[in-house]
Amino acid sequence: MDLSSRELWTALHGMVFGAAFLLAFTGGFMTLWALRSEWITDEGARRSVRRLIVWTWSMAALAWLTVILGTYVVYPWYRAKPPAGTGGAMLAQYPKYLLLSSPRTADWHEFGMEWKEHVAWLAPILATAVAFVVTRYRGQLAADAHVRRALLILYSLAFFTASVAGLLGALINKAAPMR
Amino acid sequence: MATPEAIGETLPNGPAWAGILAAGVGCASLGLLIDMAEASKTVSNALNFYNPTGDLSGKTTLAVIVWLIAWALLHASWKNRRIQSPGKITLVTLILIVLALIAVFPPFFGLLAAG
After folding, report:
1. Which residues of A touch B95 (CB under 8 A)?
2. Contact between A55 and A24 (Cβ < 8 Å)
3. Fewest Cβ atoms nearer than 10 Å: which of A166, B1, B22, B24?
4. Contact flag B20-A151 (C-beta cutoff 8 Å)
5. In this complex, is the C-beta atom of B59 within 8 Å of any C-beta atom belonging to chain A?
6. Does B22 touch chain A (CB under 8 A)?
7. Option in B16, B60, B100 nearest A147 (CB)
8. ipTM of the complex
9. What is the pLDDT of residue B8?
10. Is the pLDDT of residue B114 over 90?
11. H-helix segments, A80-144
């Protein structure tokens, strides 16, 4: 078994940070969903909020790490331009140009990567807003259904945008692996 | 039953709504920058802050800056306010995010592509 440096960074971007963000979503969502004054006691609210603060900031940090690593470390390798005359098997080192070299795979770049590289950046903005409000309002959230509902929407949209980016990233890396 | 008083917190809700609305503004600004870069080569070149990443560096950096400025301004304006129309702010935020989702969708911004 052998992993190149590029494969390692790509795995860290998608399979560690990105996947951890997506896996953490359900727990955070359910804790926020259940944080209702009519359902829990004061002590229950305090405990849930402490857990939620750790959860939401972890998700925000993971989202930022994923997009920054993806944009500034992995993406430059993906879009690197091959020297003139590069073709055939040598294009495997240049995923964007490998995908564009065939009409059968060009959409992976023109639709897939173009969507992924942009939509992913919505996730950390949305996740950070949720983490901030949870930290500032703590137990007060249990009694404020409007704020809680708005946070659930932002949190779900953060998950949706990260899911789109993650799924497309996995499929693109299957069509043109980062080596 | 948990009550805000028992938990010892009855902060004005203005800063919460400032953070929520600012997130919508940040998302919409990213969508707008992406569409502007797609529609104009001049804008795209101007947003090329870091060559290996191309204009994605400028689009995302500026969107984050716009988001943080919008957040700071809204926070300063609403920090002591109790927002009476949370439904309207939720709706505006949702509209901004939906616009952002449309703006970052390749078949949409492909329509604006500079020749």
Report:
1. none
2. yes
3. B1
4. yes
5. yes
6. yes
7. B16
8. 0.92
9. 47
10. no
11. 95-100, 106-107, 114-119, 122-137
